[in-house]
Design the sequence.
């Protein structure tokens, strides 16, 4: 079965702090895909990044970085020097193959609040 | 270019009434998905249309829910005899044909409140 766990329900930080959002996944698929989405107060889910299971290269994009580790089934997301505009709910999602191709399995989300 | 659009933005209805929610995917995207977001259940997959293939309806919670996609573009999600537990945000997403798992881009959602 596909499952995504985001153990952190809420995180509060002060502006300029670094913050890491955790994501642990479960799947029996040998090929799978991992995603992070951001949901600001406006409600729309905004795509941030996608990772394929066969590509463990970590990525940095501006203040964002992602750490994908198959050995621990984790796909963590770090925001460096956080800003108030980063306040949102962040979702980790898993997409697989086979009979579940197409659908995404989402974690419950982590509410990040960045205080000025 | 234009993103996924959904209408209406908000819908208030009375228990027992039918509702229709509309989704316009990104131009050129052949796959379309419906999800539901509620406080109790989080984000749940409902249904997925891929090109001309039969849709994957395995996520629909009951036979009161149905969806269709006309002309490979616009989709309508219909909820018959609405119940209060149907109150949620209904999100639509689209992607390129997922021969492999393609990135899904989401619309702003329709907030449904059943009184």
Sequence:
């Amino acid at each position: 079965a596909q499952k995504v766990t985001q153990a952190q329900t809420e995180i509060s930080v002060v502006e300029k702090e670094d913050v890491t959002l955790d994501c642990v996944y479960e799947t029996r698929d040998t090929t799978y895909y991992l995603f992070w989405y951001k949901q600001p107060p406006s409600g729309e889910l905004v795509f941030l990044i996608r990772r394929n299971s066969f590509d463990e290269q970590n990525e940095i994009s501006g203040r964002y970085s992602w750490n994908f580790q198959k050995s621990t089934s984790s796909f963590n997301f770090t925001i460096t020097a956080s800003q108030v505009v980063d306040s949102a709910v962040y979702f980790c999602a898993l997409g697989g193959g086979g009979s579940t191709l197409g659908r995404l399995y989402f974690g419950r989300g982590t509410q990040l609040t960045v205080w000025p | 270019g234009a993103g996924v659009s959904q209408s209406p933005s908000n819908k208030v209805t009375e228990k027992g009434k039918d509702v229709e929610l509309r989704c316009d995917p990104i131009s050129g995207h052949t796959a379309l998905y419906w999800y539901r977001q509620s406080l109790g259940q989080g984000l749940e997959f409902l249904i997925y249309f891929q090109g001309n293939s039969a849709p994957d309806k395995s996520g629909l919670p009951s036979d009161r829910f149905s969806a269709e996609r006309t002309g490979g573009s616009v989709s309508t999600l219909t909820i018959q005899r609405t119940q209060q537990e149907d109150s949620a945000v209904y999100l639509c997403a689209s992607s390129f044909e997922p021969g492999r798992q393609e990135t899904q881009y989401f619309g702003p959602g329709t907030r449904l409140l059943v009184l």
